[in-house]
Amino acid sequence: MEAAPGNLAGVRHVILVLSGKGGVGKSTISAELALALRHAGKKVGLLDVDLCGPSLPRMLRVQDRAVHQCDRGWVPVFVDREQSLSLMSVGFLLEKPDEAVVWRGPKKNALIKQFVSDVAWGPLDYLVVDTPPGTSDEHMAAVDALRPCGPLGALVVTTPQAVSVGDVRRELTFCRKVGLRILGVVENMSGFVCPHCAECTNVFSRGGGEELARHAGVPFLGSVPLDPELCRSLEEGRDPTQSFPASPAFPALCSIAQRILSEAPAGLC
Ligand SMILES: Nc1ncnc2c1ncn2[C@@H]1O[C@H](COP(=O)(O)OP(=O)(O)OP(=O)(O)O)[C@@H](O)[C@H]1O
Ligand code: SF4
Question: Which positions in this protein are listed as binding ATP (predicted)?
Answer without folding.
Answer: 20-27
